[in-house]
Queue: 2 jobs
Job 1
Amino acid sequence: MPRPYIAVELKHLVIERAQGRCEYCQCRADYATETFPIEHVVPISRGGKIESENLALSCSSCNGHKYNAVEAIDPISDSLIPLYNPRQHEWTKHFGWNEGYSRIIGITPTGRATVVRLQMNHLGSVNLRKALYFVGKHPPKNFEKSK
């Protein structure tokens, strides 16, 4: 099936709204090795539309691990939980950082299920966050420390 077309203006809106970061793991696009795709929060295969409120900037890792999922298992309750939706949820209500800002911690069932499903703490991302923290480029300035 061909990829659905997203207008250039809409792509720019999504990138600007995300401040050039993955809306899931907060990875910076300007330090990534691959271009970030515009992803459908609710996948087209599940009835999602090509509209601003259903689009998010996502790193390749989060996008690939999310695939067409909208829910995942919370590792604590073992319940099927809706994934984090950057258009409906506030990041800091569902996620926090460890002491060195290298690992994302899910602090709600949605946060925990999303961290696991999207593999937000895979080695490459953790190492990049450590390096960027060391040079003062991580965490994003608008995120307060939470544990």
Job 2
Amino acid sequence: MNWDKRLTHPPTWALKTIRAGRLKGSSDIKPQWRYIAMTEVFGLCGEGWYFDVNKLWTEPGPDGQVFAFADINLFTKNESGRWNKPIPGIGGNMLIQRENDKETGGYKFHANDEAYKMAVTDALSTAMKMVGVASAVYEGSWDGSKYKDQPPDTPEFISAEQVEAINLLIDDSKADSVRFLKFMKAKTVDAIVKADYKKAVAALDAKMKEVR
């Protein structure tokens, strides 16, 4: 699948390991990164992408608990400037949840006043998967800094920290980023092969000496 790498590979800061529950060991992805990635690829929300909330509703759960659900449609604009067909997404969260009461040894109920907002966020994450957002994490091949279970013939790209270092060198050396990336045979800085990192640094250091 030829998805944009800016969508598929969240940076380290956007990932948090889930420590407990059924999803223990998986990566939780910060919603704000999804919106940043969508904006980088499609444009500002409302101009290059947007969503409609079709329905918000509740469903009863076991033992007096209540679920909140959201049904949304995600829209993205294609390269010709036309809006694509809607991408559906359904998400949910707990509106009223039963918790253990340590004081009495029984149970108490917790009401979540952000349940609908969290349900919409969950629905957006579901829809955004269809355009490749964080797909490398869901595939289990990316942990935010390096590839996991990588086939021998698949190139490993530079880390998020190395990307930041290269970008700083480009700025400091006043290098032409387009010519530099062409020299490195990469479309973007984060697509530079890890084995070529020293080559990239050496080229930018040489450019830095010219500036001085």
